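Saturday, quiet lab. Running sequence design on the structure tokens for the scaffold JK sent over.
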């Protein structure tokens, strides 16, 4: 043993063992500095005196647009707040978390419970209960006094899911029976609509299924079983409904309407948006049918960009990037990660072309929270974490724009 040690020392002295085994190169990721500049600009110049982020800003001067309503509720900035919490985890700088908390506290004291669940599910209940439990409880209780009475089945289905999910999260935090009673009553109403043969378009039904599944994991007994059964039933209805994307080039609704890959407009569905709903259901159910839909939807973006004369929102690019990353996670096929980077590079070049804030659309020059700048930012962060194989920081699922 002594001779071996002496021999090894001699080799080290000669430099044979001196060099370390070279490490695998870390692929570069240019996206995070862009996101930090966006977040820092919003913290420094993009808030009103209440700490609430403005919804529309001049990208050069960073002042609110005079002809637009500059103030907005966290409903319009939910992905921005989720992004800020993620940046604190990445940077260990509390200023991002503190800014998000400040807006949530304002929101809980001033929220109009009639409208804040109108556009998307509220995914920040846990944080609300952590920083202001009494105010969060008051808001959740106010929601139980409301009744959804929309004559539009699609609107009703989407919003019913948002309320059921909110009440389930409130129940999980408080164990207040009133949330279960409100959920039972609303779910009875939802089932009655379905029994009458009134069907929503598949995107609204899929959205409701996502929220029913999430709520079922937080409530007990019969209600949980009913919610799961509803989601399972709709899964069986949905998966065969869209024609296979590879053969049609688009999701096709029951009425024969083709869902486009790129589109501009509030509430408009795109292939990527529906594809991310399929991502959510696949990750919750493990259904091969949903997995195949995710891959087929991602394939449509391998060679697709908006036409040169067309407009598009940053939101859609955020969805498309996250869709490619999801396909890469489940297949390990490099083409999906490469395409996610190509889409991200295009988005950075065309949206972040002037100053730290992204433009509202390819054909707009101002910043507008309503077109999904924060959704694009989440997609870029998700891509960054996958490029660098960072697993210690969880990224928020980019699936709430539905």
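Result came back. Writing it out in full:
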């Amino acid at each position: 043993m002594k001779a071996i040690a002496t021999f090894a020392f001699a080799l080290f002295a000669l430099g044979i063992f001196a060099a370390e085994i070279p490490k695998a190169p870390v692929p570069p990721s240019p996206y995070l500095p862009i996101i930090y500049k966006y977040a820092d600009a919003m913290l420094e110049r993009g808030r009103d005196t209440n700490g609430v982020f403005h919804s529309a800003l001049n990208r050069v001067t960073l002042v609110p647009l005079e002809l637009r309503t500059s103030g907005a509720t966290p409903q319009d900035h939910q992905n921005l707040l989720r992004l800020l919490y993620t940046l604190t985890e990445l940077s260990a700088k509390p200023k991002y978390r503190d800014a998000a908390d400040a807006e949530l506290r304002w929101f809980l004291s001033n929220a109009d419970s009639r409208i804040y669940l109108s556009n998307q599910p509220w995914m920040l209940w846990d944080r609300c209960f952590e920083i202001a439990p009494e105010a969060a409880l008051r808001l959740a209780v106010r929601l139980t006094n409301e009744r959804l009475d929309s004559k539009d089945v699609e609107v009703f289905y989407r919003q019913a899911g948002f309320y059921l999910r909110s009440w389930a999260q409130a129940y999980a935090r408080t164990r207040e029976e009133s949330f279960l009673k409100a959920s039972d009553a609303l779910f009875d109403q939802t089932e009655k609509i379905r029994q009458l043969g009134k069907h929503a378009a598949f995107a609204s039904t899929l959205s409701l299924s996502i929220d029913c599944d999430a709520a079922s994991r937080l409530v007990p007994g019969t209600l949980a079983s009913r919610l799961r059964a509803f989601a399972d039933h709709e899964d069986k209805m949905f998966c065969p409904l869209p024609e296979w994307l590879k053969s049609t080039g688009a999701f096709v609704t029951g009425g024969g309407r083709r869902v486009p890959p790129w589109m501009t407009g509030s509430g408009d569905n795109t292939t990527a948006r529906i594809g991310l709903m399929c991502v959510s259901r696949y990750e919750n159910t493990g259904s091969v049918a949903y997995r195949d839909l995710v891959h087929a939807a991602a394939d449509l973006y391998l060679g697709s960009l908006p036409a040169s004369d067309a407009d598009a929102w940053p939101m859609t690019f955020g969805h498309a990037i996250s869709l490619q990353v999801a396909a890469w996670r489940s297949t390990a096929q490099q083409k999906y990660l490469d395409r996610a980077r190509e889409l991200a590079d295009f988005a950075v070049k065309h949206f972040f072309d002037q100053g730290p804030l992204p433009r509202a659309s390819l054909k707009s020059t101002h910043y507008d929270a309503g077109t999904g700048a924060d959704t694009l930012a989440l997609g870029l962060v998700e891509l960054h974490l996958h490029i660098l194989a960072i697993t210690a920081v969880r990224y928020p699922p980019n699936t709430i724009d539905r």
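Notes for JK: Confidence is low (pLDDT under 50) at residues 1-24. The CA atoms of residues 230 and 306 lie 37 Å apart. Ask whether to fix the surface positions before the next round.
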